[in-house]
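Recap for those who missed Tuesday's class. We walked through two folding examples back to back. For each one, the amino acid string is listed first and its predicted structure tokens come directly after. Nothing is annotated here on purpose, so try labeling regions yourself before you check the end of the notes.
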Amino acid sequence: MKRLTLSIAAALLCILFAAAPASADFGLKDLGIEFTEADGSQATQAGSHPYAFTTKLAVNGKIAGEEGMEFPDGELRTLRISQPTGMVGDRDATPHCSGADFVTINQETSKNACPDATAVGYAAVRISLFDGIEPGDPRTLHVPVFNLVPRPGTAATLGFVALKLPVTIDVGVSHSPPYNIAVSLADSPQGGQFLGSEVTIWGVPGDPSHDPFRGSCLDALNFSEDPVSQGTCKTSLAPRPFLTLPRSCSGPLTSHFEASSWQSPALVSGDASTPLGIDSCSELLFGPTIAARPTTTAAESAAGLEFDVDVEDEGLTSPTSRAQSDIKKIVTTFPEGMTVNPSAGEGLGACSLAQYNAQDIGVAPGVGCPEDSKIGTVRVDTPLLQNEPLEGSVYIAKQYENPFDSLLALYIAFENPELGISIKQAGRMEADPETGRLTSTFEDIPQFPFSHLALRVKTGPRSPLVTPSACGRYAIEAELTPWSGNAPITATSTFDVTSGPNGSPCPGGSRPFHPGFEAGSTNNNAGSYSPFNLRLTRSDGEEEITKLSPTLPPGVVGKIAGMARCSEAAIAAARSKSGREELASPSCPADSRMGRTLAGAGVGSSLTYAPGSIYLAGPFRGAPLSAVAVSPAVAGPFDLGTVVIRLALNLNPTTAVVEIDGAGSEPIPRILAGIPLRLRDLRVYVDRPDFTLNPTSCDPASTKAAVFGSGGGAPVSVASRYQAANCAALGFKPALKLRLKGGTKRGDHPALHSVLTPRRGDANIGKAVVTLPRSEFIDSEHVNNPCTRVQFNAGNCPKVSVLGTARATSPLLDEPLEGPVYFRSNGGERLLPDVVADLHGLFRIILIGKVDSKGGRVRATFDEVPDAPVTKFNLDLYGGKRGLLVNSRNLCAQKNLSAKLTLTGQNGKELLQQPALKTDCKKKKPKKG
């Protein structure tokens, strides 16, 4: 914000006509500043308008020549004075003298044509000699100081004429905190013998008491120590304050002086302080108000922000009143539910601390804050710059590389090349880690009065904020702290949310939850490898997604043979990394990668999408395997870490359907580092080459899922139709080998050895019916103690219920599945107990064979065989005392002993065979001839 320094740095150079030798001891001395009242006492009241402000300055001098004359040790070239913090001036308190009038100089009087109403004080310039005067003691010249039309690049310009030579002084604002008024004089003409100056600027130039020394009434050719009046120069000028004292109380005020000489570019410096400090701050008024609202009245929608601060400060422009305190700190608390919008991350840049520090007038593009980090604008109106508001931009600061070392921060930058003003202000943003509620803090705000501040955060689909999710009235609250040191005040502004998202009706007491769900193979050719994709969506205004428990269609299985696993250490490492670290160096091995994810977060039509990967990992929460979704949470300039979600992965033991156990899986996070994710679109691509295998059944099926919402109610069941194609093109011709081993006589109990070998590339077996020859019966005495279902489920079957063993080898697994074969009761549904193969390994698969008699022959029917490829299946039943089967006749007396096999493929094809049943009967040796 631009304030005028109208404390003009005093030292104004007078050009003289004779030069004197100078040494290298150029320096400043006798520095002083003083605010005074009309009676000469010190002006100390905060926010008051002093009668005058005087700046004193002298340079080092030496005595030289026969006449013992004083000369400066170097000729002044540049001078810059940083005035006391908080002192401000109003450049429009008087009219402005035009450049033409300023340089129109009367050669006899050494006065210019500036109107008397433009005078704001006078300067006393001390010089050692000048034309027409006998050498001797230094002389003092008094000249009026005028308020000129500001030069381009300056906030204000002051000037005077000394010995017919116009001298201008630029008044601006320093470009770094605390943004004091700065007065500067550059490249003073050489040849002068300037020894010092005393510049007096009037606090209220329109005060009639200044009329005797106003403008043309000041004798500019009188060399007395005090100014000499040549009359009374009355004006119709309204008594508007030109200077205002700081509105904060502290010890003596300080000005900092810097100067250089023509003989040496090295800067010399010094400080000067007022005799007394500023007091009476407790009497200052302070009453800013705010008006704040999002740019939409729809619930849970992308929103910008309109934030206005208004200050009514009549004392700033009234000569008889004191100005209010400036705002030192603003802490704004937004209502619950008004949070950061993840949608804003896409395409958003950030301003680094180096770029923020470099932000200034005239910097090259890309040096200061980049354009893509801009999220809004700001405008400030001040009575001190009538009709010339200050305008600037609001930028997103780079996370953890800002003055607060915080995730969220803002930079506000004003730049006005016409006024030469560049002011920056950093603000901290905090988001509650549990709720996302936002609080912004701007402190140590520059001490410049303003009447109106308007901050506008951009609107549109990628606006940085989200409105609350329910209709109602909400409040934005600001705590404003004054520089005066008095207690802060609280200002509140309310706004209404009047509709649901996209203009829909206001949501009721509980939020709806109707997630969308799609799933399927990219190529549904039966028995082929194909990527499998899944997509879950929800609408704005609905409950958020917290968990997903999908079940794949029967026959959609993954080939994990030969795959690596992501270790526990690697998973822990991923959890500890930043998102960018994980992107640069994935924690899990590449050979454990099953696919990728794409998560869309935010509200409205434009989401921010973050890619991730899915890896195969080991046991988790009782499941034999797990899927690990690793998602670097990087969105635009923000890195919220790496989200790791572990999913319990299992096969249904009777159907071999792939299931992800929602209860045993980790939830999807709803908030990271205080930013609610608002997950709207989750896409999963299981696209590892030759990994996901399609079914060999073309029966209609579906991908199912239980989706859990943030409301805590029962999960919503969703499904997506699935059907493989071209099943009829698959062959089907498994081969079965049977052998009875052991006793062959009637009453013996032989063991049964069977090997089923499907062909690679054929349809998988869907149903199998095996009918034994009439020679084999079930020995009822050996099945009188079957395993009950309760015992089976508890893994506590009696040993006598074990009939044998089974073993299944699959190209999808590194190791076969094997386990015991039980005689298990079926709850009275059938006369005979079932034959149950309980296969264990990486997964558990249970094959149930229903046993009955068909035409006097023992028959076992396996109705539900999983649609999964098997290269070999072995089933062995014990013989002897533990044998299930008993010979009803002598096997060796039988010819063409065979079983009957009916196999049905998953594609519906049926195969009938009568495989020979081999025995241990010895072949008779032929007689010798």
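Example two. Treat it independently of the first, because the proteins are unrelated.
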Amino acid sequence: MSTQQADLEACREAIHHGSLSFHAASKLLPASVRDPSLALYAFCRLADDAVDLQVEKAAAVMKLQERLDRIYLGKPDDAPADRAFARVVEDFEMPRALPDALLEGLAWDACGRRYETLAELFDYSARVASAVGVMMCVLMRTRDPDALARACDLGVAMQLTNIARDIGEDALEGRIYLPLEWLDEAGLEPDRFLADPKPTKAIRQMTRRLVMQANRLYMRSEAGVAALPLASRTGIYAARFIYAGIGAQVQKAGYDSISSRAHTSKLQKLGWVAVSAMKAVATVLMPKSAVLYASCLPETQFLVDAAGRANPKSSRSDTVFEALAQVALHERAQREALMAAQGRSN
């Protein structure tokens, strides 16, 4: 087995254990897209784990930035995901701003950033999800702005679904992604909720709002699938329906994501794959939807612009450094609080 094949096999194994939904959908993509997408998702999984599992998160994000620097210089680290992603960057002229956006989102997570409004939550979702969607379009050799805008819609929708599903798990880890103004309107203090998360009527209503927002964006995203290469449409439809199905399970549970975590069965996934195949065939016969030309979400416009830039390998974004500074300040504040607490106990 060649080094390239071995690297792809390692990426495939990482995705199989780390993202079952993507692993299922990726099988429906043509090999020309599936193999580089495995490299892309493996690098994204590596980045997420490299930050999430470390105590010194600022240092972890900086190390990822340095690894990305070496990838864009054509000198990746001696690791399967790095080597495979370096080939993707070279073969597809992947704009540096796109993986940078992902790292910025991870840095926001690392500093425990909270989001005041739904628009700010869209900002976050654009970085950790829509950036990946736009990179997938690049792998499909699709850089049409309208198609990219709909890919961004799909990314935001999928992230909102994740947030709606994981409210309870996130609360146990001290994280809250619900817009703070929603909690304020309901008279709820975020830290009080985190100390004792309960599926109250107000929280379930907020969860419902997230699912409804996601569903709206799933519907908008469908118009963009028809603008993708025909061989890729079934796989992207499958990702859309599988993730929307998670939202449907949240709805079925009465929007209670605290008492239990929504999941879908293998049989349900097979059903959505069948629907996806039929939808893909239908796109050949149907005229383009006017929704394709809907305005891009303002929060994702920078990604659409980045995918079409003439200089795709420009230097890393200053916004990542700004996010890293916030992570460092957050970690410093945590250390000072811990030292103060230890001083009082002594």
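Answers for example two:
The radius of gyration is 20 Å.
Residues 111 and 301 are 24 Å apart (CA to CA).
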